[in-house]
Amino acid sequence: MKVGDLPTPALVVDAEAFAYNLDTMAAALPGPRLRPHVKAHKTTALAREQHARGHHTFTCATPREVLGMARAGMGDDVLLANQCLDANRLRALADSGARVTVAVDSGATIIAAAANGIREVLIDVNVGMPRCGCPPDEAGRLADAARAAGLEVRGVMGYEGHVVGLEDATERSAQTRAAMDCLEVAHKLAGGDVISAGGTGTYAINTYATEIQAGSYALMDNAYDALALPFKRALAVVATVIHANAKFAVADCGLKALAMDHGNPSMTGADVWFCSDEHVTFAPHAPVAPSDRVFVWAAHVDPTIAKHDRMHLATAIDPDAEVVDSWPVDLRGWDVS
Amino acid sequence: MKVGDLPTPALVVDAEAFAYNLDTMAAALPGPRLRPHVKAHKTTALAREQHARGHHTFTCATPREVLGMARAGMGDDVLLANQCLDANRLRALADSGARVTVAVDSGATIIAAAANGIREVLIDVNVGMPRCGCPPDEAGRLADAARAAGLEVRGVMGYEGHVVGLEDATERSAQTRAAMDCLEVAHKLAGGDVISAGGTGTYAINTYATEIQAGSYALMDNAYDALALPFKRALAVVATVIHANAKFAVADCGLKALAMDHGNPSMTGADVWFCSDEHVTFAPHAPVAPSDRVFVWAAHVDPTIAKHDRMHLATAIDPDAEVVDSWPVDLRGWDVS
Questions:
Q1: Do B118 and B68 share a structural domain?
Q2: Is residue B222 part of a domain?
Q3: Are A39 and A7 members of one domain?
Q4: How many Cβ contacts (< 8 angstroms) between chains A and B?
Q5: Non-local CB neighbours of B248 within 8 Å, separated by 6+ positions
Q6: pTM of the full structure
Q7: Complex-level ipTM beyond the 0.90 threshold
Q8: Subunit contact A261:B273, Cβ cutoff 8 A
């Protein structure tokens, strides 16, 4: 099947660019130096490609992602880099057969983990972004509480999410260092071997962390593409032109197929005007006609993929390219049954 | 089960507000005066409530929605208010057993409909929003072409999508009239009994259309709630507090659970700071603690629902309220197999 024969809208992965991204990252951060973040793609078939390149440790944002990785046989060492207080879900992780480590940042999260069979934790530290994580100087107290509850404290994590997207590389480096200074304070207090941090925007400059939690590097998006990283945009949405006139055209790919939290998508050979639920209105640089295929590039990859039930690997982002594989986006939603 | 026992994040519908909205609309636009838009909820169980209140004609944005309505036994008269050039999908609609009417706005869409067994069409007219639809003065030519291709032209449609969200009611009325002036020109040229238009924001002021395509009225959202319409916000996302400190708190409901195209959500008893993939960071007005449930109100209802696989009806938007039903969001995605 050709890309131009896919029912639209559909996610298309440039297999070559994707492989280049994985190879580039595996060379920079081999094996356990990278703990690929599954939330970026929610696709066990894609994770298998990361696994095949030597990364056997994974990061997840939801219990469902962790369980899916365990069931897919990639549960050697999976980190839930998120707080969970749901007893049923924690119990499901504990019983999954996988080695599951859970982030904790409070007495409540420690108690929930210990009470539901979790054995290993990281102390999650706030390194500057107002989200989860304890203050650095509380990491020792929490580590003590976790150990007292019978948990193994593997170390600390602290995600510099306020830094990974900074376009100024010098500023990004300086702020990464400042964030990791916080994490160092916490690590000295909490102990353990693991210092987990980082993302696609800081994978090369965060030299303090023992492992980097990057995920977007595999497929990239317009936001990360602005950072001049050595990764290629590998994911587009293929759409069909359903209307064209002298001023603008419309394709069948709207905000139900594209994440809008980072703003409008871009298009190859066109200027995007706006998205509706099932439409993108755009000004093409050269005339298009109904039934033509066009390619739309999302501003933010993670939530874009989460809107689709599969992604198609192709030899290129081109209507005439061959579709070589089709992967279910099997870790969507939050259900752990 | 209580709302506070639902695994989070989860969609919760206030059953009373929902029934009020449906009753209010059925009184204002009884029976076929309303052609409820299925894209707003993608849920056949919800459509069944609209059907039970006398609305037996429906509007859909995707072939999948049309097929799902047909398979659910609500295919008396379903309009695909969107252009489709996909032969397989058009053929599936034609063979569905439902009475399916398709919007056409070009020679290409007419040829595709006629070639794949579609029998009835509406001429889609651009009434001011740059999306699909022919210029009003081309409606007659297209209607002639459709009839020459063997299609029954039931009338015209023209969605004043650029008007439905205007907060100034006077301006909304004036612009609705201007849009319907365009549609009147087209209708005189095209003929047919049906003049289909409108949305939740113009359901009461668009008195020209023979039928209104409103959908959001059933559950509402923050954007429409700003228009002082007689409908109540009936849908929230319930989330669990997973982190709390003296300055802010975090709950497990992020931009993978909430549409962001209309901006940030709001929260009951809190100011939202920002959303990440699986988190909302907020400043609560009164202290919250881990495991507390909070309610998040989406800016835009349609794409929010499309991120979830079910919605839960409850006696109130309250952790202690009873969950009385659970409906699958069964018309998501674009697959028609």
A1: yes
A2: no
A3: no
A4: 141
A5: A130, B273, B281, B282, B283, B284
A6: 0.97
A7: yes
A8: no
